[in-house]
Design brief:
Largest sheet: 7 strands, parallel
Oligomer: single chain
Distance between the termini: 36 Å
Radius of gyration: 16 Å
Length: 203
C-alpha cells in the first residue's frame, strides 16, 4: 500500500509517536480511548509502546495502521489492522504529516523526538495546514521550557508564541481525547463510545 491509496474511510486520523523500547499502560489506554471515539490511529508499527497502543486499539474495536519501513519490517507485531510499507524514515514521516489530522507524542526516545520536532516544524512553518500537536504527561515539559514556550515567558520576537500555538498539553489519555474532540471536531462515534469529560491541560 502507498500513501496515494490510503483510505481514511471518513474518519479523522491521529498519528501517535511513541517508544519502540518500552511497553506502556498509557499507550494501551490511549489506543482504547481513541478507538472508542472512532479515530483511525497511525503509528510506526513496532514493538514497545506501539504494540501496547495496538493492543488497546484492538480492545476498543478500532482501526490502527502500522506505517512501517522496509528495514523495520521484521518488527511488526500483532493487533494492527493493516500495514502501509514505505521505503525509509523520511517517507514515513511525510506520510504521518500529510495523512494525519492531529498528532500525539507520548514519552519516547530519539525516534519519537525526531517525529515530534519535524512535525512541529512543518506545522509551525506553514508547510502543511495547521494541525494540533498534543504532548502527554511531564516527559516533554523540559523541551517546552527550553524553547521558552511556557505561558508568560519572554518572547521579544514573537516566534516562540507562534510556535507554541500548535502545542497542546494533556496530563493523561482522557485529556488527549478531549483536546482532539475540541480541536478537530470529533470523529464518528462507534458503538463503544467513550465519554471524554475531563478538562484538558493548558496550551
Amino acid at each position: 500500500m502507498t500513501p496515494a491509496v490510503f483510505d481514511k474511510r471518513g474518519r479523522k486520523a491521529v498519528a501517535v509517536y511513541c517508544s519502540a523500547r518500552k511497553a506502556g499502560n498509557e499507550a494501551r489506554e490511549l489506543g482504547r480511548l481513541l478507538a472508542g471515539r472512532g479515530y483511525t490511529i497511525l503509528c510506526g508499527g513496532g514493538p514497545g509502546s506501539m504494540q501496547s497502543l495496538a493492543e488497546g486499539t484492538h480492545e476498543g474495536g478500532g482501526r490502527i495502521v502500522a506505517v512501517t519501513i522496509r528495514d523495520y519490517a521484521h518488527e511488526r507485531r500483532s493487533h494492527f489492522s493493516e500495514t502501509v510499507e514505505l521505503p525509509d524514515l523520511a517517507s514515513r514521516l511525510q506520510f504521518f504529516i500529510h495523512e494525519a489530522d492531529a498528532f500525539v507524542a507520548l514519552a519516547g526516545g530519539t525516534g519519537t523526538l525526531a517525529e515530534l520536532a519535524l512535525t512541529w516544524e512543518f506545522v509551525n512553518k506553514g508547510l502543511v495546514a495547521p494541525k494540533p500537536i498534543i504532548i502527554t504527561g511531564p516527559f516533554w515539559n523540559p523541551l517546552v521550557s527550553m524553547l521558552h514556550l511556557e505561558p508568560g515567558a519572554p518572547d521579544p520576537t514573537g516566534l516562540a508564541t507562534a510556535a507554541a500555538q500548535h502545542i497542546h498539553k494533556a496530563r493523561n489519555p482522557l485529556e488527549v481525547v478531549t483536546v482532539l474532540d475540541v480541536r478537530i471536531g470529533g470523529p464518528h462515534l462507534n458503538d463503544r463510545q467513550v465519554p471524554a469529560t475531563s478538562q484538558p491541560g493548558t496550551n
